[in-house]
Amino acid sequence: MASLYNTKFYHRDLSWLRFNHRVLQEAADVRNPLYERIKFLAIFSSNLDEFFRVRVSDIRQIKTIEKPLRKKLITKPNKVLKEIKKQVDIQQNEFGKIFNEEIIPQLASEGIHLIRHENFSEEQREIATKYYEESLKQITEISCNPCTEQHSVFVKNERLYLAAQTADDEFLMVEIPETEPRFFVFPSADDKTFHITFIDDILKYNLQKEFSEKRDTAFHSLKISRDAELYIEDEFSGNLMEKIKAALPNRDTGQATRVLIDPEMPEDFREILKKALDVTHTDVVLGGRYHNFKDFMQFPNPTQIKLSNEKLPPLPHPVLENCNSIFEAIDKKGQLLHYPYQSFKPVIRLMQEAANDPQVKTIKITIYRAADESDLNDAIALAAKNGKDVSVFIEVKARFDEQNNLKWGAIFRKNGARVIYSYPDIKVHSKILYIEREVEEKIKRYAYIATGNFNENTATLYTDFGLMTAHKKITKDLKKVFMVLERDMIVPKTKQLLVSPFTTRERFTALVEREIALANEGKKGLIILKMNSLQDEGMIKELYKASNAGVEVRLLIRGMCSLVPGIEGQSENISITSIVDRFLEHGRIYIFGNDGDEQLFIGSADWMTRNLTHRIEVVTPILDEDHKKTIRDIINIELNDNVKARIIDAEQKNEYVKNSAKKVQSQLAIYEYFKNLTE
């Protein structure tokens, strides 16, 4: 595996699997409440589904490209796929042990018994029969298929099926209804002992009875993940938005990238199904008796026992919560917000205030992933309806959110907003809002620049920063970014903001080089970066160069990390930790020592090639000293986490940080930090 685990760059997809292993570690962590551990199993499963639909499908497409070009894109795709399958098998086995040997017994100790249909009591069989006859039978689709070489079967993407061989020459395919809850709670006799079963088992019990005359029929679970790429042939001609809209149904019929099959399925029947589904041995993963573990996010707790974390409700912002006007507050001083520790409501209130303020003339915003139901988006629509000049850039190529983004685009346009959709060959990933108000016959500009989406749902789950400011140079720069989006300008010549794909790489490279120069002068060089992902080889080489010059490099990387730390002569001055806890670490922070006068930035760009070269991203400097202190305090807390932080070493073993210092669980400590600000 030398080519995949070389000393320069760790393979991005294998590194992503190591991230998902950190999620699995949370499921195994007995310090977490039982239902939190179950939730992490669900997240692990959901992550893996998307990985096969996106990354594995990409690698398979690369296999079809001619070798010279393929070498530029990826090294030996077959070898990569083989190693991916090996690592996934190891993690799936670990997943099964955690679930069967730890979660199931612990549920039982709390009086919650997750039972199979083989263990139904006589009374439970009667209840299961009644539920099937009254609720399931009429909505359950069953097809009978001949076992012939010519016969093919189509299985819907990410849907759950049961398959059974009923005779030598036919088999059944049963689609499990999505409209019913995945889990069924049997009535309890004493309110102390509860029995829960999968809807799968309700179906298995009844279907085996129904088809028993065709022999002792055993039903086995089956699920297919399909390629999620839309494959727009030519983004530069015609209406790109309409092409994306037309291509969305193809996602349900794309090439199979993973076929999950119950390992108890007989091998001869497995071969019959592979031919009928037109898949190969490479596609098949033996994935357990049950699939779609993401449904465990809604696993019922019928007891009165608290089995989850105590909630950490978003805290009120000390300035914006009770101010008379968000605009007046920003006029006095820029405001920094940090979700989900602080409430997202001030952002919604800013838009609502803008929609109703007669002095507001212009509103411009980018939407990447919108909430399905959104007070923020309702306020944008209201602003347009109220006659404001509203421009909304909607990224329709935000994978898996295309349909929802199109829906909101139609609503905005109906209310009078100018809606601009995706550009060919580039994504708009920035999280920016620009507002103009007419004050005393002069135009006053306001900006909101964030690390996370304009989405009130994810703002309760993802850790992100947002900056509200009326700083003249920043707002002037942001106006230029929107001029680019509206095609009134080709290149934004910004003085404060870093904007991909124009200046971000160049500016970050210069900042790293300055730290190298300081170190070469015998001064302290310092770089602290917090990101979701680090993959771009050019920027990684810059960090290696900084390490070799003696610059101290501290990295907080939540997800994939292609940089290999701790290698003599390459990266011995680089240390990396990754925090996985109750909230998803999502904010991007960039800190450069600057000989004691630190420069801080926040923005939407990871150091991935796509963020630096193929997306429009916006990164803003933090100029206010109070905001600098807040961000630095938070980063210090995270760098000292020794409860939920893992060490990213050269092999990405994911060992927990262990030291003799006082225990610091950074997310709880940060919540207390902001709580103290409000008291």
Automatic annotation (TrEMBL):
Q: In what way is this protein post-translationally modified?
A: An intermediate of this reaction is the autophosphorylated ppk in which a phosphate is covalently linked to a histidine residue through a N-P bond.
Task: Tell me which residues bind Mg(2+).
Answer: R369, R399
Q: What is its EC number?
A: 2.7.4.1
PLD phosphodiesterase domain sequence ranges: 424-458
Q: What class of enzyme is it?
A: transferase
Does the UniProt entry include the keyword Phosphoprotein? yes
Q: In the record, what terms sit under GO molecular function? A: kinase activity
What cofactor does this one take?
Answer: Mg(2+)
**PROSITE patterns for this protein:** PLD
Active site per the UniProt annotation: H429 (phosphohistidine intermediate)
Query: Reaction(s) catalyzed by this protein?
Result: [phosphate](n) + ATP = [phosphate](n+1) + ADP
* Assigned keywords, A-Z: ATP-binding, Kinase, Magnesium, Metal-binding, Nucleotide-binding, Phosphoprotein, Transferase
Task: Tell me if ATP-binding is a UniProt keyword of this record.
Answer: yes
Q: Where does ATP bind?
A: N47, Y462, R558, H586
Q: Which InterPro entries match?
A: PLipase_D/transphosphatidylase, PP_kinase, PP_kinase_C_1, PP_kinase_middle, PP_kinase_middle_dom_sf, PPK_C_dom2, PPK_N_dom, PPK_N_dom_sf
Family matches, as PANTHER family: POLYPHOSPHATE KINASE
Briefly state the protein's biological role. Catalyzes the reversible transfer of the terminal phosphate of ATP to form a long-chain polyphosphate (polyP).
* UniProt family annotation: Belongs to the polyphosphate kinase 1 (PPK1) family.
What is the protein's name according to its record? Polyphosphate kinase
Species assigned in the record? Aequorivita vladivostokensis
Gene of this entry:
ppk
